[in-house]
Design brief:
2 copies of one chain form a homodimer. By secondary structure, the first copy, chain A, is an alpha+beta fold. Chain A has 2 domains: 168 residues, Nucleoside Triphosphate Pyrophosphohydrolase, CATH 3.90.79.10; 61 residues, Arc Repressor Mutant, subunit A (Orthogonal Bundle), CATH 1.10.10.10. Helices cover 21% and strands 27% of the residues of chain A. Chain A contains 4 helices and 11 strands. In chain A, a hairpin with a 5-residue loop joins strand 1 and strand 2. The longest helix of chain A has 15 residues. Chain A is elongated and about 65 Å long. The two termini of chain A are 25 Å apart. The relative contact order of chain A is 0.18. The structure holds a DNA duplex (27 and 27 nucleotides).
DNA sequence: CCAAAAGTGTTCCATTTACACCCATGA
DNA sequence: TCATGGGTGTAAATGGAACACTTTTGG
Protein backbone atom coordinates (compact mmCIF):
# COMPACT_ATOMS: atom_id res chain seq x y z
CA UNK A 1 0.00 0.00 0.00
CA UNK A 2 1.31 3.42 -0.89
CA UNK A 3 1.84 5.91 1.90
CA UNK A 4 -0.94 8.31 2.75
CA UNK A 5 -0.41 11.43 0.66
CA UNK A 6 -1.72 13.97 3.10
CA UNK A 7 -2.05 13.64 6.85
CA UNK A 8 1.59 12.84 7.37
CA UNK A 9 2.31 16.42 6.36
CA UNK A 10 -0.45 18.06 8.30
CA UNK A 11 0.93 18.32 11.77
CA UNK A 12 3.84 20.51 10.89
CA UNK A 13 1.89 23.75 10.50
CA UNK A 14 3.53 26.57 12.34
CA UNK A 15 1.97 29.18 14.52
CA UNK A 16 1.12 32.05 12.23
CA UNK A 17 -0.88 34.14 14.63
CA UNK A 18 -2.47 33.71 18.00
CA UNK A 19 -6.15 32.96 17.88
CA UNK A 20 -8.14 34.15 20.85
CA UNK A 21 -11.25 32.04 21.20
CA UNK A 22 -11.13 28.32 21.97
CA UNK A 23 -11.17 26.19 18.81
CA UNK A 24 -14.60 25.42 17.47
CA UNK A 25 -15.65 22.16 15.91
CA UNK A 26 -17.00 21.67 12.41
CA UNK A 27 -17.93 18.66 10.34
CA UNK A 28 -17.27 18.31 6.63
CA UNK A 29 -18.06 15.53 4.20
CA UNK A 30 -16.53 14.14 1.04
CA UNK A 31 -19.29 12.26 -0.77
CA UNK A 32 -18.27 10.26 -3.79
CA UNK A 33 -20.74 9.19 -6.45
CA UNK A 34 -20.22 7.54 -9.81
CA UNK A 35 -21.31 9.61 -12.78
CA UNK A 36 -20.09 9.76 -16.36
CA UNK A 37 -17.16 12.09 -16.79
CA UNK A 38 -16.96 14.57 -19.70
CA UNK A 39 -15.25 11.82 -21.66
CA UNK A 40 -18.23 9.52 -21.09
CA UNK A 41 -16.69 6.94 -18.81
CA UNK A 42 -17.94 6.66 -15.23
CA UNK A 43 -15.75 8.40 -12.70
CA UNK A 44 -15.96 9.81 -9.20
CA UNK A 45 -17.83 13.04 -8.51
CA UNK A 46 -18.24 15.02 -5.31
CA UNK A 47 -20.84 17.61 -4.28
CA UNK A 48 -19.33 21.01 -3.60
CA UNK A 49 -20.75 24.23 -2.20
CA UNK A 50 -19.86 27.61 -3.59
CA UNK A 51 -18.74 30.01 -0.90
CA UNK A 52 -20.68 33.24 -0.65
CA UNK A 53 -18.42 34.88 1.95
CA UNK A 54 -14.80 35.66 2.42
CA UNK A 55 -12.38 34.04 2.54
CA UNK A 56 -12.36 32.07 -0.67
CA UNK A 57 -15.57 33.79 -1.78
CA UNK A 58 -16.69 32.21 -5.05
CA UNK A 59 -14.53 29.13 -4.58
CA UNK A 60 -15.94 25.65 -4.22
CA UNK A 61 -15.77 23.99 -0.81
CA UNK A 62 -16.82 20.78 0.85
CA UNK A 63 -20.27 20.66 2.44
CA UNK A 64 -20.04 21.16 6.16
CA UNK A 65 -21.14 22.99 9.21
CA UNK A 66 -20.88 23.23 12.97
CA UNK A 67 -21.35 20.40 15.43
CA UNK A 68 -24.24 20.93 17.78
CA UNK A 69 -24.27 19.79 21.36
CA UNK A 70 -26.79 17.00 21.09
CA UNK A 71 -25.54 14.92 18.19
CA UNK A 72 -22.73 12.46 17.67
CA UNK A 73 -20.02 13.21 15.15
CA UNK A 74 -21.54 10.95 12.56
CA UNK A 75 -25.04 12.24 13.17
CA UNK A 76 -23.75 15.74 12.61
CA UNK A 77 -22.18 14.68 9.34
CA UNK A 78 -25.43 13.10 8.20
CA UNK A 79 -27.54 16.06 9.17
CA UNK A 80 -25.22 18.48 7.49
CA UNK A 81 -25.13 16.47 4.35
CA UNK A 82 -28.91 16.24 4.23
CA UNK A 83 -29.25 19.97 4.73
CA UNK A 84 -26.83 20.97 2.04
CA UNK A 85 -27.32 18.27 -0.56
CA UNK A 86 -30.34 16.17 0.45
CA UNK A 87 -28.19 13.05 0.47
CA UNK A 88 -28.46 10.23 3.02
CA UNK A 89 -25.59 7.79 2.41
CA UNK A 90 -25.89 4.25 3.70
CA UNK A 91 -22.19 4.11 4.44
CA UNK A 92 -20.34 6.91 6.18
CA UNK A 93 -16.89 6.76 7.65
CA UNK A 94 -14.59 9.14 9.47
CA UNK A 95 -11.66 10.32 7.41
CA UNK A 96 -9.52 12.57 9.55
CA UNK A 97 -9.54 15.53 11.92
CA UNK A 98 -7.89 18.56 10.38
CA UNK A 99 -6.75 21.22 12.74
CA UNK A 100 -3.63 22.93 11.46
CA UNK A 101 -3.23 26.58 12.32
CA UNK A 102 -3.09 27.51 8.68
CA UNK A 103 -6.78 26.82 8.47
CA UNK A 104 -7.55 29.51 11.01
CA UNK A 105 -7.48 32.51 8.70
CA UNK A 106 -11.20 33.18 8.57
CA UNK A 107 -12.17 36.85 9.02
CA UNK A 108 -15.83 35.95 8.63
CA UNK A 109 -15.92 34.36 12.06
CA UNK A 110 -13.33 36.48 13.71
CA UNK A 111 -10.02 34.89 14.54
CA UNK A 112 -11.56 31.72 15.90
CA UNK A 113 -9.77 28.50 15.14
CA UNK A 114 -11.76 25.77 13.37
CA UNK A 115 -11.03 22.08 13.72
CA UNK A 116 -12.77 20.05 11.03
CA UNK A 117 -13.65 16.41 11.42
CA UNK A 118 -14.16 15.06 7.92
CA UNK A 119 -16.34 12.12 6.97
CA UNK A 120 -16.46 10.38 3.61
CA UNK A 121 -18.92 8.13 1.82
CA UNK A 122 -19.73 6.47 -1.46
CA UNK A 123 -23.36 6.75 -2.59
CA UNK A 124 -25.55 5.35 -5.32
CA UNK A 125 -25.79 7.16 -8.59
CA UNK A 126 -29.55 7.65 -8.30
CA UNK A 127 -29.05 9.40 -5.00
CA UNK A 128 -27.14 12.15 -6.71
CA UNK A 129 -30.27 13.95 -7.92
CA UNK A 130 -30.41 16.26 -4.94
CA UNK A 131 -33.44 15.04 -3.03
CA UNK A 132 -36.36 16.84 -1.42
CA UNK A 133 -36.96 20.36 -2.62
CA UNK A 134 -33.44 20.61 -3.95
CA UNK A 135 -32.87 20.48 -7.68
CA UNK A 136 -29.73 19.56 -9.54
CA UNK A 137 -28.61 23.12 -10.17
CA UNK A 138 -29.98 24.34 -6.90
CA UNK A 139 -28.44 27.38 -5.31
CA UNK A 140 -24.75 27.01 -4.86
CA UNK A 141 -24.44 23.25 -4.70
CA UNK A 142 -23.17 21.27 -7.67
CA UNK A 143 -21.39 18.04 -8.51
CA UNK A 144 -17.85 18.14 -9.77
CA UNK A 145 -15.38 15.45 -10.85
CA UNK A 146 -13.30 14.55 -7.83
CA UNK A 147 -10.02 14.73 -9.72
CA UNK A 148 -8.68 17.62 -11.79
CA UNK A 149 -7.50 15.09 -14.36
CA UNK A 150 -11.14 14.28 -15.02
CA UNK A 151 -12.35 17.83 -15.23
CA UNK A 152 -12.67 18.67 -11.55
CA UNK A 153 -11.55 22.00 -10.09
CA UNK A 154 -7.83 22.10 -9.45
CA UNK A 155 -8.24 24.45 -6.51
CA UNK A 156 -10.78 24.43 -3.74
CA UNK A 157 -11.35 26.65 -0.73
CA UNK A 158 -9.12 26.24 2.32
CA UNK A 159 -7.25 22.92 2.28
CA UNK A 160 -10.18 21.10 0.75
CA UNK A 161 -8.32 20.04 -2.37
CA UNK A 162 -5.89 18.07 -0.22
CA UNK A 163 -8.73 16.63 1.81
CA UNK A 164 -10.46 15.33 -1.31
CA UNK A 165 -7.21 13.80 -2.51
CA UNK A 166 -6.72 12.07 0.80
CA UNK A 167 -10.29 10.77 0.76
CA UNK A 168 -9.65 9.41 -2.73
CA UNK A 169 -6.60 7.58 -1.49
CA UNK A 170 -8.56 6.07 1.37
CA UNK A 171 -11.43 5.01 -0.88
CA UNK A 172 -9.08 3.30 -3.31
CA UNK A 173 -7.28 1.44 -0.59
CA UNK A 174 -10.43 0.46 1.18
CA UNK A 175 -12.29 -0.88 -1.83
CA UNK A 176 -9.64 -3.55 -2.23
CA UNK A 177 -10.35 -5.26 1.06
CA UNK A 178 -13.63 -3.88 2.41
CA UNK A 179 -17.23 -4.07 1.29
CA UNK A 180 -17.47 -0.53 0.07
CA UNK A 181 -18.58 -0.98 -3.52
CA UNK A 182 -21.90 -2.62 -2.68
CA UNK A 183 -23.25 0.61 -1.30
CA UNK A 184 -23.22 2.06 -4.79
CA UNK A 185 -25.40 -0.71 -6.18
CA UNK A 186 -28.99 -1.75 -5.58
CA UNK A 187 -30.28 -4.89 -3.94
CA UNK A 188 -29.26 -7.06 -6.89
CA UNK A 189 -26.55 -6.48 -9.42
CA UNK A 190 -24.47 -8.26 -12.02
CA UNK A 191 -20.80 -8.94 -11.56
CA UNK A 192 -20.11 -6.68 -14.52
CA UNK A 193 -21.82 -3.81 -12.72
CA UNK A 194 -19.81 -4.47 -9.59
CA UNK A 195 -16.67 -4.62 -11.65
CA UNK A 196 -17.51 -1.30 -13.29
CA UNK A 197 -17.66 0.28 -9.84
CA UNK A 198 -14.26 -1.08 -8.94
CA UNK A 199 -12.81 0.02 -12.25
CA UNK A 200 -14.18 3.52 -11.91
CA UNK A 201 -12.85 3.87 -8.38
CA UNK A 202 -9.46 2.43 -9.13
CA UNK A 203 -9.17 4.13 -12.49
CA UNK A 204 -8.06 1.03 -14.37
CA UNK A 205 -9.65 -1.95 -16.04
CA UNK A 206 -9.83 -5.33 -14.34
CA UNK A 207 -9.86 -8.81 -15.82
CA UNK A 208 -13.50 -10.01 -15.69
CA UNK A 209 -12.57 -13.64 -15.14
CA UNK A 210 -10.21 -12.98 -12.26
CA UNK A 211 -12.48 -10.38 -10.72
CA UNK A 212 -15.27 -12.96 -10.59
CA UNK A 213 -13.17 -15.55 -8.86
CA UNK A 214 -11.62 -13.21 -6.33
CA UNK A 215 -14.98 -11.97 -5.16
CA UNK A 216 -16.62 -15.35 -5.06
CA UNK A 217 -13.82 -16.55 -2.85
CA UNK A 218 -13.98 -13.81 -0.27
CA UNK A 219 -16.90 -11.43 -0.07
CA UNK A 220 -20.41 -12.02 1.24
CA UNK A 221 -21.82 -12.60 -2.21
CA UNK A 222 -24.84 -14.74 -2.99
CA UNK A 223 -25.91 -15.86 -6.45
CA UNK A 224 -29.64 -15.43 -7.01
CA UNK A 225 -31.80 -17.30 -9.49
CA UNK A 226 -32.57 -14.07 -11.31
CA UNK A 227 -31.02 -12.85 -14.49
CA UNK A 228 -30.84 -9.40 -15.96
CA UNK A 229 -33.08 -9.56 -19.04
CA UNK A 230 -33.26 -7.08 -21.86
CA UNK A 231 -29.58 -6.87 -22.68
CA UNK A 232 -28.28 -7.35 -26.16
CA UNK A 233 -26.58 -10.63 -25.35
CA UNK A 234 -26.53 -13.49 -22.91
CA UNK A 235 -28.33 -12.37 -19.73
CA UNK A 236 -25.99 -12.17 -16.76
CA UNK A 237 -26.85 -13.65 -13.39
CA UNK A 238 -27.85 -11.28 -10.62
CA UNK A 239 -26.07 -11.40 -7.27
CA UNK A 240 -26.96 -10.18 -3.82
CA UNK A 241 -24.68 -8.82 -1.13
CA UNK A 242 -25.26 -10.60 2.15
CA UNK A 243 -22.77 -8.81 4.38
CA UNK A 244 -23.46 -5.90 6.72
CA UNK A 245 -25.26 -2.98 5.14
CA UNK A 246 -24.75 0.58 6.22
CA UNK A 247 -23.03 0.81 9.52
CA UNK B 1 -6.43 -6.93 6.58
CA UNK B 2 -8.96 -7.64 9.31
CA UNK B 3 -11.70 -5.09 9.81
CA UNK B 4 -11.21 -2.34 12.35
CA UNK B 5 -12.57 -3.54 15.67
CA UNK B 6 -13.78 -0.26 17.02
CA UNK B 7 -14.65 2.85 15.04
CA UNK B 8 -17.13 1.05 12.80
CA UNK B 9 -19.29 0.70 15.87
CA UNK B 10 -18.80 4.18 17.20
CA UNK B 11 -21.18 6.24 15.16
CA UNK B 12 -24.26 4.44 16.32
CA UNK B 13 -24.34 5.97 19.79
CA UNK B 14 -27.80 7.20 20.62
CA UNK B 15 -28.82 10.42 22.21
CA UNK B 16 -28.95 9.73 25.92
CA UNK B 17 -29.45 13.25 27.14
CA UNK B 18 -29.19 16.72 25.76
CA UNK B 19 -25.97 18.46 26.55
CA UNK B 20 -26.18 22.22 26.83
CA UNK B 21 -22.82 23.74 26.06
CA UNK B 22 -21.12 23.45 22.67
CA UNK B 23 -18.78 20.44 22.50
CA UNK B 24 -15.28 21.05 23.75
CA UNK B 25 -12.13 19.62 22.23
CA UNK B 26 -9.61 17.46 24.00
CA UNK B 27 -6.52 15.57 22.92
CA UNK B 28 -5.49 12.16 24.19
CA UNK B 29 -2.52 9.97 23.40
CA UNK B 30 -1.83 6.25 23.30
CA UNK B 31 1.94 5.82 23.60
CA UNK B 32 3.32 2.36 23.12
CA UNK B 33 6.71 1.29 24.39
CA UNK B 34 8.41 -2.07 24.50
CA UNK B 35 9.17 -3.33 27.98
CA UNK B 36 9.42 -6.81 29.43
CA UNK B 37 6.07 -8.18 30.52
CA UNK B 38 5.63 -10.00 33.85
CA UNK B 39 6.46 -13.19 31.99
CA UNK B 40 9.78 -11.68 30.91
CA UNK B 41 9.18 -11.35 27.19
CA UNK B 42 9.05 -7.87 25.65
CA UNK B 43 5.54 -6.62 25.07
CA UNK B 44 3.71 -3.34 24.59
CA UNK B 45 3.14 -0.97 27.47
CA UNK B 46 1.26 2.32 27.68
CA UNK B 47 1.48 5.22 30.14
CA UNK B 48 -1.76 5.77 32.05
CA UNK B 49 -2.91 8.46 34.44
CA UNK B 50 -4.92 7.70 37.53
CA UNK B 51 -8.04 9.83 37.76
CA UNK B 52 -8.38 11.90 40.90
CA UNK B 53 -11.93 13.11 40.21
CA UNK B 54 -15.28 11.67 39.33
CA UNK B 55 -16.29 10.07 37.15
CA UNK B 56 -14.07 7.02 37.12
CA UNK B 57 -12.18 8.31 40.13
CA UNK B 58 -9.31 5.93 40.83
CA UNK B 59 -9.45 4.34 37.38
CA UNK B 60 -6.65 4.56 34.90
CA UNK B 61 -7.08 6.79 31.87
CA UNK B 62 -5.12 7.89 28.83
CA UNK B 63 -2.99 11.02 29.15
CA UNK B 64 -4.77 13.98 27.67
CA UNK B 65 -6.02 17.47 28.08
CA UNK B 66 -7.69 20.38 26.35
CA UNK B 67 -6.68 21.91 23.05
CA UNK B 68 -5.60 25.50 23.35
CA UNK B 69 -6.23 28.11 20.74
CA UNK B 70 -2.72 28.60 19.49
CA UNK B 71 -1.51 25.10 18.77
CA UNK B 72 -2.10 22.53 16.08
CA UNK B 73 -3.68 19.21 16.96
CA UNK B 74 -0.37 17.42 16.90
CA UNK B 75 1.38 20.15 18.85
CA UNK B 76 -1.28 19.85 21.51
CA UNK B 77 -0.77 16.11 21.67
CA UNK B 78 2.99 16.58 22.09
CA UNK B 79 2.65 19.26 24.72
CA UNK B 80 0.18 17.23 26.69
CA UNK B 81 2.30 14.15 26.54
CA UNK B 82 5.34 16.07 27.71
CA UNK B 83 3.42 17.58 30.60
CA UNK B 84 1.99 14.34 31.87
CA UNK B 85 4.73 11.85 31.12
CA UNK B 86 7.79 13.79 29.98
CA UNK B 87 7.86 11.87 26.72
CA UNK B 88 8.68 13.35 23.30
CA UNK B 89 8.06 10.69 20.65
CA UNK B 90 9.72 11.00 17.26
CA UNK B 91 6.72 9.53 15.53
CA UNK B 92 3.18 10.62 16.31
CA UNK B 93 0.10 9.88 14.28
CA UNK B 94 -3.57 10.69 14.53
CA UNK B 95 -5.75 7.74 15.46
CA UNK B 96 -9.36 8.82 15.49
CA UNK B 97 -11.77 11.46 16.71
CA UNK B 98 -14.13 10.07 19.32
CA UNK B 99 -17.31 12.01 19.85
CA UNK B 100 -20.16 9.68 20.77
CA UNK B 101 -22.72 11.07 23.15
CA UNK B 102 -22.07 8.28 25.62
CA UNK B 103 -18.82 9.98 26.44
CA UNK B 104 -20.58 13.10 27.67
CA UNK B 105 -21.42 11.96 31.18
CA UNK B 106 -18.90 14.02 33.06
CA UNK B 107 -20.28 15.79 36.13
CA UNK B 108 -16.87 17.25 36.88
CA UNK B 109 -17.17 19.66 33.98
CA UNK B 110 -20.89 20.06 34.00
CA UNK B 111 -22.85 18.52 31.17
CA UNK B 112 -20.46 19.66 28.49
CA UNK B 113 -19.81 17.29 25.63
CA UNK B 114 -16.17 16.34 24.99
CA UNK B 115 -14.82 15.33 21.62
CA UNK B 116 -11.44 13.64 21.89
CA UNK B 117 -8.95 13.54 19.10
CA UNK B 118 -6.58 10.70 19.89
CA UNK B 119 -2.96 10.39 18.73
CA UNK B 120 -0.77 7.34 19.02
CA UNK B 121 2.98 6.67 18.90
CA UNK B 122 5.62 4.06 19.41
CA UNK B 123 8.65 5.20 21.43
CA UNK B 124 12.02 3.84 22.39
CA UNK B 125 12.41 1.83 25.53
CA UNK B 126 14.93 4.21 27.06
CA UNK B 127 12.44 7.05 26.69
CA UNK B 128 10.10 5.34 29.08
CA UNK B 129 11.91 6.55 32.18
CA UNK B 130 9.73 9.59 32.65
CA UNK B 131 12.00 12.51 31.82
CA UNK B 132 12.70 15.82 33.49
CA UNK B 133 11.68 16.06 37.10
CA UNK B 134 9.35 13.14 36.73
CA UNK B 135 10.31 9.81 38.22
CA UNK B 136 9.07 6.38 37.30
CA UNK B 137 6.56 6.14 40.11
CA UNK B 138 5.75 9.81 39.96
CA UNK B 139 2.35 10.98 41.09
CA UNK B 140 -0.41 9.21 39.33
CA UNK B 141 1.34 8.25 36.13
CA UNK B 142 2.50 4.68 35.52
CA UNK B 143 3.17 2.25 32.74
CA UNK B 144 0.84 -0.70 32.22
CA UNK B 145 0.79 -3.56 29.73
CA UNK B 146 -1.38 -2.52 26.81
CA UNK B 147 -3.30 -5.80 26.77
CA UNK B 148 -5.15 -7.45 29.64
CA UNK B 149 -3.79 -10.77 28.44
CA UNK B 150 -0.32 -9.52 29.35
CA UNK B 151 -1.28 -8.14 32.73
CA UNK B 152 -2.77 -4.82 31.72
CA UNK B 153 -5.93 -3.41 33.31
CA UNK B 154 -9.06 -4.93 31.79
CA UNK B 155 -11.05 -1.77 32.41
CA UNK B 156 -10.09 1.84 31.90
CA UNK B 157 -11.92 5.10 32.44
CA UNK B 158 -14.47 6.20 29.87
CA UNK B 159 -14.11 4.33 26.58
CA UNK B 160 -10.33 4.27 26.85
CA UNK B 161 -10.08 0.49 26.87
CA UNK B 162 -11.64 0.38 23.41
CA UNK B 163 -9.42 3.22 22.25
CA UNK B 164 -6.28 1.35 23.31
CA UNK B 165 -7.52 -1.78 21.55
CA UNK B 166 -8.14 0.17 18.39
CA UNK B 167 -4.70 1.77 18.58
CA UNK B 168 -3.20 -1.69 18.97
CA UNK B 169 -5.01 -2.83 15.86
CA UNK B 170 -3.70 0.15 13.93
CA UNK B 171 -0.14 -0.36 15.14
CA UNK B 172 -0.16 -4.02 14.14
CA UNK B 173 -1.52 -3.29 10.73
CA UNK B 174 0.81 -0.41 10.14
CA UNK B 175 4.00 -2.13 11.15
CA UNK B 176 3.51 -4.57 8.29
CA UNK B 177 3.79 -2.01 5.55
CA UNK B 178 5.12 1.21 7.11
CA UNK B 179 8.38 2.22 8.72
CA UNK B 180 7.13 2.27 12.27
CA UNK B 181 9.48 -0.11 14.01
CA UNK B 182 12.62 1.95 13.39
CA UNK B 183 11.46 4.60 15.82
CA UNK B 184 11.94 2.15 18.65
CA UNK B 185 15.55 1.50 17.77
CA UNK B 186 18.67 3.59 17.81
CA UNK B 187 20.77 4.79 14.92
CA UNK B 188 22.16 1.34 14.23
CA UNK B 189 20.64 -2.01 15.01
CA UNK B 190 20.88 -5.66 14.11
CA UNK B 191 18.25 -7.44 12.12
CA UNK B 192 17.54 -9.61 15.14
CA UNK B 193 16.74 -6.50 17.19
CA UNK B 194 14.43 -5.23 14.49
CA UNK B 195 12.80 -8.61 14.33
CA UNK B 196 12.28 -8.62 18.07
CA UNK B 197 10.36 -5.38 17.77
CA UNK B 198 8.12 -6.84 15.12
CA UNK B 199 7.58 -9.99 17.10
CA UNK B 200 6.67 -8.08 20.23
CA UNK B 201 4.22 -5.87 18.38
CA UNK B 202 2.62 -8.69 16.45
CA UNK B 203 2.69 -11.08 19.36
CA UNK B 204 4.12 -14.00 17.42
CA UNK B 205 7.51 -15.23 16.31
CA UNK B 206 8.81 -14.62 12.82
CA UNK B 207 11.16 -16.69 10.68
CA UNK B 208 14.55 -14.96 10.80
CA UNK B 209 15.45 -15.94 7.26
CA UNK B 210 12.24 -14.73 5.68
CA UNK B 211 12.18 -11.60 7.80
CA UNK B 212 15.61 -10.70 6.52
CA UNK B 213 14.70 -11.09 2.89
CA UNK B 214 11.40 -9.28 3.10
CA UNK B 215 12.97 -6.22 4.67
CA UNK B 216 15.95 -6.11 2.38
CA UNK B 217 13.59 -6.12 -0.55
CA UNK B 218 11.43 -3.22 0.53
CA UNK B 219 12.42 -0.92 3.33
CA UNK B 220 15.00 1.85 3.38
CA UNK B 221 17.61 -0.30 5.02
CA UNK B 222 21.36 0.15 4.66
CA UNK B 223 23.99 -2.35 5.74
CA UNK B 224 26.86 -0.72 7.58
CA UNK B 225 30.38 -2.03 7.96
CA UNK B 226 29.97 -2.27 11.71
CA UNK B 227 29.25 -5.36 13.70
CA UNK B 228 27.81 -5.78 17.15
CA UNK B 229 30.72 -7.15 19.21
CA UNK B 230 30.57 -8.71 22.62
CA UNK B 231 27.89 -11.29 21.99
CA UNK B 232 28.35 -14.91 22.79
CA UNK B 233 28.39 -15.99 19.15
CA UNK B 234 28.96 -14.76 15.67
CA UNK B 235 28.69 -10.93 15.66
CA UNK B 236 25.74 -9.69 13.63
CA UNK B 237 26.03 -6.89 11.13
CA UNK B 238 24.59 -3.51 12.08
CA UNK B 239 22.10 -1.80 9.81
CA UNK B 240 20.92 1.75 9.44
CA UNK B 241 17.49 3.06 8.51
CA UNK B 242 17.72 5.57 5.67
CA UNK B 243 14.04 6.49 5.26
CA UNK B 244 12.24 9.48 6.74
CA UNK B 245 12.66 9.90 10.49
CA UNK B 246 10.02 11.40 12.67
CA UNK B 247 7.39 13.20 10.68
C1' DC C 1 35.32 -29.24 18.83
C1' DC C 2 30.75 -27.76 20.25
C1' DA C 3 26.85 -24.69 20.83
C1' DA C 4 24.39 -21.04 19.08
C1' DA C 5 23.27 -17.35 16.39
C1' DA C 6 24.16 -15.14 11.64
C1' DG C 7 23.22 -15.62 7.17
C1' DT C 8 22.09 -18.31 2.44
C1' DG C 9 19.63 -21.49 -0.64
C1' DT C 10 15.84 -24.19 -1.96
C1' DT C 11 11.37 -26.19 -1.99
C1' DC C 12 6.56 -25.97 -1.36
C1' DC C 13 2.27 -23.77 -1.63
C1' DA C 14 -1.37 -20.25 -2.28
C1' DT C 15 -2.62 -16.38 -4.76
C1' DT C 16 -2.45 -13.42 -8.71
C1' DT C 17 -2.21 -12.70 -13.56
C1' DA C 18 -2.82 -13.55 -18.35
C1' DC C 19 -5.37 -15.47 -21.74
C1' DA C 20 -7.54 -19.29 -24.38
C1' DC C 21 -11.85 -21.16 -24.79
C1' DC C 22 -16.88 -22.37 -24.46
C1' DC C 23 -21.81 -20.72 -23.58
C1' DA C 24 -26.07 -18.30 -24.41
C1' DT C 25 -28.69 -14.85 -26.22
C1' DG C 26 -30.56 -10.93 -29.47
C1' DA C 27 -30.57 -9.45 -33.80
C1' DT D 1 -25.25 -17.73 -37.81
C1' DC D 2 -22.79 -14.15 -36.08
C1' DA D 3 -21.33 -10.75 -32.84
C1' DT D 4 -20.91 -9.95 -28.04
C1' DG D 5 -20.63 -10.20 -23.46
C1' DG D 6 -21.23 -14.02 -19.72
C1' DG D 7 -18.76 -17.51 -17.70
C1' DT D 8 -15.02 -21.51 -17.11
C1' DG D 9 -10.37 -23.65 -17.44
C1' DT D 10 -5.62 -23.48 -17.13
C1' DA D 11 -0.86 -22.49 -17.05
C1' DA D 12 2.79 -19.12 -15.96
C1' DA D 13 4.46 -15.80 -12.61
C1' DT D 14 4.68 -14.10 -8.14
C1' DG D 15 5.45 -13.96 -3.28
C1' DG D 16 5.28 -15.90 1.28
C1' DA D 17 6.20 -19.89 4.54
C1' DA D 18 8.95 -23.69 5.94
C1' DC D 19 13.24 -25.53 6.63
C1' DA D 20 17.81 -27.55 5.42
C1' DC D 21 22.25 -25.95 5.23
C1' DT D 22 26.61 -23.21 5.66
C1' DT D 23 29.33 -19.63 8.24
C1' DT D 24 31.36 -17.52 12.15
C1' DT D 25 32.16 -16.54 16.56
C1' DG D 26 32.88 -17.59 22.04
C1' DG D 27 33.84 -20.93 25.14
Amino acid sequence: MAPAPFPVAVGGANVAERAQLPPSLAISTVIFALKPAPDGRPTLWVPLVRRVREPYRGSWALPGGPLTASESLEDAARRNLAETTGLDPAYLEQLYAFGGLRRANRPDIGSQRVVSIVYWALVRAHETEFGGELGEERDNVAWHPAEPSHGGPAELAFDHREIVDYALWRLRNKIEYAQVAYHVLGEMFTLAQLREVHEAVLGRSLDPANFRRQLKGTADLEATEHYLEGGRHRPPRLYRYTGPRGL
